[in-house]
Specification:
11 helices; single chain; mainly alpha; 207 residues; elongated
Length: 207
């Protein structure tokens, strides 16, 4: 039995490289698999070995950012996302991740400014509206937050349950119980056996 949480990436044999081209992607591939299994520290060790082979490997910086974000080590996540964004400034998903890290670090205005620029070139990206929702909710701008999560739902191709649930919750906070229960019922059609959604509906009906 091997506990992958304690996995350490094999050291890159740089001395033996010589004229032979060695690519870092076996480390990236293993690192991504480890990240998906929740073994974030092990995935970090893979990304670091990849960078020894190719110091400008953007996939390694993104993987490091992802893992540090999951570990809530936001300063380290920011450092790695910043490098990745500098390499790929037009990647909207990457720039959205960067904005979210700014949000987690409490740089709300900087995060909002970054998202506004991003929104101009990606006006139908639900992830951007979700990030705006988080900022406005933290600032206590509940109505503005509701507008943003509603837009996230509008542009979500597959009606993401996460966005629907956040929308229903904030409608409840705004005391728009009629609309809130309608959204919860639409979620219930997707996941009919979910006990939490059923309870939320019952709580509103009993008001």
């Amino acid at each position: 039995y091997l506990d992958l949480k304690f996995w350490t990436a094999p050291k890159a044999e740089l001395v033996k490289i010589g004229a032979k081209i060695i690519y870092p992607y076996r480390y990236i591939k293993r690192g991504r698999a480890l990240k998906e299994m929740g073994c974030f520290k092990a995935a970090i060790s893979e990304a670091k070995e990849a960078l020894k082979i190719e110091p400008n490997c953007v996939d390694a910086f993104i993987l490091l950012g992802n893992c540090y974000e999951e570990l809530k080590e936001y300063n380290l996540a920011l450092e790695n996302y910043r490098i990745a964004v500098a390499m790929f400034p037009r990647d909207s998903g990457l720039r959205n991740s960067f904005a979210l890290i700014l949000y987690h670090l409490g740089y709300l205005h900087e995060s909002e400014d970054h998202l506004r620029v991003l929104l101009k070139s990606n006006p139908k990206d639900p992830n951007i509206y979700h990030a705006f929702y988080l900022i406005y909710k933290k600032q206590g701008k509940i109505k503005e937050a509701e507008i943003m999560i509603n837009k996230a739902n509008q542009y979500s191709k597959n009606k993401d349950i996460k966005y629907l649930n956040l929308w229903a919750d904030i409608l409840f906070d705004l005391k728009d119980y009629h609309q809130s229960i309608n959204v919860y019922k639409s979620i219930q059609k997707i996941i009919p056996l979910n006990a939490e959604i059923k309870k939320n509906i019952e709580n509103i009906e009993n008001l």
